[in-house]
Design a protein that fits this description.
about 550 residues; alpha+beta; 5-stranded antiparallel sheet; 17 strands
Length: about 550
């Protein structure tokens, strides 16, 4: 009986855990669905903002065309009545009620013409829009909304300067109806709770698809992303509307010419509305599944037994896999040893005929040299040089193979001291060279000293070699940066450099960017550098320009603080 009670308790506990997991998973799925819905709403709002920006840009283009036409007509008109006729003709080309009226202001800031027949002689030279138009030069300027004293409606000024011989001579204004623009915004197919706004670069609302009379006199909060970064072109943000308190996901787009911003905000309830039936089905499904869990509690014991047997089978499979891995590792070690033996055998077999070629060529030069013409001597020297280069290539290839397979013996390494030793050796081998060395003090890393010496020998040796034809040669070793446990060092020179189009070939074996008669080498050194650095978990890169030097960067683990 105790065993049965314990089993019943176990079943009850497991059933409770399963139910809790079901509800947690369902809530998590609902949260992910909600997050996905808001991400899709953000994408849709961005697309709508882009579309509305295109429409607004088209409206502004038509306004700018009208301004340019009016400016031309003003310069050509014989009198005000003739100009007024041209104004009416221009307004007829624009949408009805789009523009309230047209006015012209002279260079002194006095209104000299108004299409409504009012305000002539009024001084507006001290108004911000007139001063701004004078300052920005010959381009269209969009002002902030104001309530027209003539029509009583909200309008915003769109203007261009009048020019006489290239000099500012006043402005021509179009007073655009914000209500008309708001109707254009509201024409976008959205839900009733969604909004579309047109915002001035200063943050003033120019038009709003909902509550327009109230909204047009407001400024958007200063924390909006398009106000925080005046260079940004588009983006997304979430906000709580000060007009109705609703949360919305908004996409925005800045018009490049005018700086105006179109904002499309999709309300949370509108975004979630299509998901409500799915949410209700989710609740029903959770209820059904909960009942199934409760009814099937007795099956848990059977499933636990199956899980136990499966674990035993998995354990047996794991042990078998470990045995196979050990066997394959042993086979691989034997194969590597055979490859190493083969490499040494091949190198010995290759070196023997090379030494014979070089030796017989030298003997031929001694015995038959005086009787050979210049062409024969040239051929003989080329044979000797090729044999020597082939021998060096075999040596470098074996060295690269050994360094790539050797066991890492990590320890603190003084890169500065090691580099100075290598530099001293280079100078001893060629004392006639004059090179300015800059080795930064205190460069340290956690790496294999033998392998790191090979890296520095190759990089510093290459810099020494490729500055051989540079009059004022300079070579430096510095630390550039450090992050995520790695630090980056650079070897820089002002030598022959290379074409960046071939940078991918630098670290491949036997690939050379310079001819042998120009700079000696086997094309193995940089491949060795790359393998050693990558074995330490770092990376290597190069930059250069032909005739302007090169810089090689490599990263190594940072030295441990002891």
């Amino acid at each position: 009986m105790k065993r049965m009670r314990a089993l019943m308790l176990l079943v009850a506990v497991l059933t409770g855990v399963a139910l809790a997991g079901l509800w947690w998973q369902a809530d998590r799925a609902r949260s992910q669905l909600r997050l996905q819905a808001f991400e899709e709403a953000g994408q849709r709002s961005q697309q709508l903002a882009d579309a509305m920006a295109g429409q607004i840009d088209g409206l502004l283009s038509s306004l700018d065309t009208a301004l340019l036409r009016l400016r031309r007509d003003w310069a050509l008109a014989a009198d005000l009545p003739a100009f007024a006729a041209q104004v009416q003709e221009t307004l007829d080309t624009l949408p009805q009620d789009f523009v309230d009226y047209v006015s012209v202001v002279d260079a002194g800031g006095h209104v000299v013409y108004n299409s409504l027949g009012a305000e002539s002689g009024v001084y507006v030279g001290d108004r911000p829009h007139f001063r701004a138009q004078r300052a920005v030069g010959d381009r269209m300027l969009v002002g902030t909304p104001v309530r027209s004293r003539l029509s009583g409606r909200w309008v915003f000024i769109v203007s261009r300067p009048l020019l006489r011989d290239g000099v500012f001579d006043g402005t021509v204004h179009l007073l655009v109806s914000t209500e008309h623009v708001s109707r254009r915004l509201a024409a976008l197919s959205l839900r009733p709770t969604d909004i579309v706004s047109l915002v001035h670069p200063s943050g003033q609302l120019l038009a709003h698809s909902a509550s327009h009379p109230v909204a047009v006199s407001m400024k958007v909060p200063a924390d909006r992303p398009f106000l925080l970064d005046a260079q940004a072109e588009a983006g997304l943000f979430r906000f709580e509307s000060p007009l109705d308190g609703r949360w919305r996901t908004a996409g925005w787009r800045r018009l490049p010419a005018s700086g105006l911003v179109t904002v499309v905000g999709l309300s949370d309830e509108g975004v979630m509305a299509p998901l409500q039936p799915l949410m209700q089905r989710d609740w029903a499904l959770k209820g059904v599944l909960s009942g199934l869990f409760l009814a099937g509690g007795g099956m848990i014991i059977f499933l636990l037994g199956r899980v136990g047997r499966s674990q035993d089978e998995l354990h047996a499979l794991t042990e078998d896999l470990e045995r196979r891995v050990q066997a394959r590792t042993k086979d691989l070690a034997m194969l590597n040893a055979e490859l190493e033996t083969f490499a040494y055998s091949v190198s010995h077999d290759l070196r023997t005929p090379l030494r014979s070629i070089h030796g017989f060529a030298s003997l031929l030069e001694e015995e038959a040299g005086p009787s050979l013409d210049d062409t024969g001597k040239t051929h003989l020297r080329r044979i000797q040089a090729a044999a020597k280069r082939m021998g060096q290539l075999i040596t470098d290839l074996l060295s690269m193979s050994q360094l790539s397979r050797s066991t890492l013996k990590v320890a603190p390494v003084d890169l500065s001291g090691m580099a100075r030793e290598i530099v001293a050796e280079l100078v001893r081998n060629d004392p006639g060279r004059r090179v300015t060395w800059e080795i930064e003090d205190g460069l340290r890393a956690e790496a294999d000293p033998v392998l790191v010496r090979a890296v520095l020998q190759n990089l510093l040796g290459n810099a020494w070699k490729y500055t051989g034809q540079t009059a004022d040669a300079r070579i430096s070793l510095r630390r550039e940066s450090g992050a995520s446990g790695l630090q980056t060092f650079s070897v820089r020179d002002n030598g022959a450099g290379f074409d960046m189009a071939y940078v991918q070939q630098l670290f491949q074996p036997f690939r050379r960017l310079h001819a042998h008669d120009e700079f000696e080498g086997s094309g193995v050194g940089l491949a060795t550098v790359r393998r050693i650095v990558e074995r330490h978990g770092g990376s290597v890169s190069a930059e250069g320009a032909v005739g302007r030097g090169a810089v090689f960067r490599f990263s190594l683990p940072q030295a441990q603080t002891r």
